[in-house]
Automatic annotation (TrEMBL):
Belongs to the EamA transporter family. It comes from the Bacteria. Pfam families: EamA. Residues 1-130 form the EamA domain. This is Permease of the drug/metabolite transporter(DMT) superfamily. Its main location: membrane. The lineage of its organism: Bacteria, Bacillati, Bacillota, Clostridia, Eubacteriales. It comes from Clostridium botulinum B str. Osaka05. It is found in: Membrane. The keyword Transcription does not apply. The chain crosses the membrane at residues 27-45, 57-78, 90-109, 115-131.
Length: 135
């Protein structure tokens, strides 16, 4: 987990440094290219090609949807945010993503809001407020 946090922080800082040279679209493209190349050996090791015929077609549609909307557009918006408001403020507001997920899952999926959900939301909002106030 520590390595993941360090990679995420490095990604934001590195993005800010190279942002004057490259557009957010270019940075997003190379981020995905690098990650894809890094993951290829792990994919080969897992031998997923033997399972391709067993996966229903709607799973491929879901993968395509998640790839475009949740990943590419999400990272592109993040790169644009880093360019406009900097990595520190962007990382603060990225913490609000779970709250939007809670709202959307309640509206779209009809999930119930529990006391844990309310407490988690309060903790996230408090954390974002404290970070924002210290800036």
């Amino acid at each position: 987990m520590i390595i993941a946090v360090l990679c995420w922080a490095s990604y934001g800082v590195f993005s800010k440094k190279v942002m004057p040279k490259y557009s957010p679209m270019t940075l997003t493209f190379y981020s995905f290219l690098f990650c894809t190349l890094f993951l290829i050996p792990f994919v080969i090791y897992e031998k997923p090609l033997s399972l391709i015929n067993k996966v229903p077609y709607y799973s491929y549609i879901a993968i395509l949807y998640m790839s475009i909307f949740a990943s590419v557009i999400g990272y592109l918006v993040q790169q644009i945010s880093i360019k406009q408001i900097g990595p520190s403020k962007t990382s603060i507001f990225v913490n609000l993503v779970p709250i939007s997920s809670i709202v959307l899952s309640t509206i779209i999926l009809g999930e119930k809001i529990t006391i844990i959900t309310i407490l988690s939301t309060a903790l996230i909002v408090a954390g974002v407020y404290i970070c924002q106030k210290s800036n």
